[in-house]
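Quick one, probably user error.
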């Protein structure tokens, strides 16, 4: 005969939430594999006592998310506005809010496993405020940011608690390193009634098997991780400096992307040798080429030329592989575009803009000439050589079909740009082109060139 319990379901639920199981009672509890008997709570084991705690969950809030590492492999940082949902052991990111309840194939969220994860505030990985980092046990790294500090702090605390509770009982499936969710891996002690013991005495198992061999196994895993971390720290501290690598020839100074002043000091000149070589080649066989500097060369060949120059190999532009003069001009424009600071330095951008706004011609020439003389010596000499060459290109305009406006459009954004654009790209481009056109027209007066 089965005796029905007089307690209501609400009373049994309230008792299960506050139940504390003693170690002596644990072996008597049956392990039920039925989903209905699984507990929906976290179970913390400490000193042989299992304590049931509610899950920490946050649902439904937009956060800025950037994934910067995938299994230890660095990725480009791209901030994305994601709909974020926190469960007991996972952090879910959806591209759109509606995808949380959508069952479409394309609505699969980005899942962050919090078992063994490390959460910490960071100011080094991003210039944004209120940023914290999540590092999973697989080596993936995420940056989380919110405009409000209170919002960021709320998510930081909640994710930290979820990660801690997921790590306190690191149960693992046999022959697997994957952490089991707390609500699906433990028997439902909190939800089982006293009568359950008498109904299923055959399937009785002791929970000590989890608290002995499994926990010992997790302790060895954590020791191995600490050993790996210590070895990595030693490797990083012992790695040679950049100066040592350069002295041994393992790392060579590049030409493309190098600061103009640094490059000239290294070569002992005031004009980079690569600029000299390119301008000489164009003077020999490219002044009458249709659309010189306007027509693009083959990009693969330009990159091949760049690689040879960066490796400090002997460069002979008279070879057949460089017979297309547009490859040479394309490489020269690429060199100027990749300068960390343009040929017209950042601090001179606004003064040149103000000077070109002057309406009176003589005053404008005087103002621009004064600014050119204030430039660093490498910038001044390189500018003089380049504009004297462009003046010769303009002399053959009937054959190459290049006008002052065409040259200004090509070289304006190539030779000068502001340090902070601030959304005025079209506005700046107008003055960039005008400055180059004006210097090209008045190059003989500005650089004291011989009149022919």
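Nope, works fine. Designed sequence:
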């Amino acid at each position: 005969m089965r005796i029905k319990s007089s307690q209501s379901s609400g009373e049994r639920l309230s008792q299960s939430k506050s139940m504390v199981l003693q170690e002596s009672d644990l072996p008597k509890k049956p392990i039920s594999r039925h989903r209905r008997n699984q507990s929906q709570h976290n179970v913390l084991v400490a000193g042989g006592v299992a304590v049931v705690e509610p899950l920490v969950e946050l649902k439904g809030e937009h956060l800025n998310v950037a994934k910067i590492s995938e299994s230890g492999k660095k990725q480009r940082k791209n901030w994305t506005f994601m709909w974020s949902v926190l469960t007991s052991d996972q952090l879910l990111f959806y591209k759109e809010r509606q995808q949380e309840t959508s069952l479409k194939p394309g609505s699969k969220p980005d899942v962050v496993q919090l078992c063994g994860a490390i959460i910490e505030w960071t100011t080094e990985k991003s210039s944004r405020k209120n940023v914290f980092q999540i590092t999973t046990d697989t080596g993936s790294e995420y940056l989380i940011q919110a405009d409000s500090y209170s919002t960021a702090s709320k998510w930081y605390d909640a994710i930290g608690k979820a990660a801690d509770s997921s790590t306190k009982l690191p149960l693992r499936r046999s022959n697997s390193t994957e952490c089991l969710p707390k609500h699906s891996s433990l028997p439902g002690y909190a939800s089982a009634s006293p009568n359950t013991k008498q109904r299923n005495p055959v399937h009785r198992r002791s929970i000590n098997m989890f608290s002995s061999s499994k926990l010992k196994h997790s302790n060895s895993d954590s020791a191995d991780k600490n050993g790996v971390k210590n070895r990595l720290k030693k490797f990083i501290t012992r790695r040679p400096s950049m100066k040592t690598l350069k002295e041994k020839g393992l790392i060579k100074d590049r030409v493309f992307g190098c600061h103009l002043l640094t490059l000239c000091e290294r070569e002992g000149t005031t004009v980079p040798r690569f600029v000299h070589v390119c301008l000489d080649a164009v003077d020999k066989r490219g002044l009458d080429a249709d659309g010189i500097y306007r027509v693009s060369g083959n990009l693969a060949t330009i990159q091949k030329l760049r690689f040879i120059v960066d490796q400090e190999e002997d460069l002979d532009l008279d070879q057949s592989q460089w017979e297309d003069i547009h490859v040479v001009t394309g490489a020269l424009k690429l060199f100027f575009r990749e300068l960390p600071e343009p040929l017209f330095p950042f601090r001179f951008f606004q003064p040149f803009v103000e000077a070109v706004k002057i309406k009176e011609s003589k005053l404008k020439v005087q103002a621009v000439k004064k600014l050119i003389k204030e430039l660093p010596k490498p910038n001044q000499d390189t500018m003089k050589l380049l504009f004297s060459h462009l003046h010769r290109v303009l002399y053959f305009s009937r054959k190459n079909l290049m006008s002052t406006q065409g040259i200004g459009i090509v070289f304006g954004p190539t030779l000068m740009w502001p340090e902070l654009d601030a959304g005025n790209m079209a506005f700046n481009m107008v003055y960039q082109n005008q400055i180059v056109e004006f210097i090209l027209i008045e190059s003989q007066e500005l650089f004291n060139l011989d009149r022919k």
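The CA atoms of residues 352 and 368 lie 7 Å apart.
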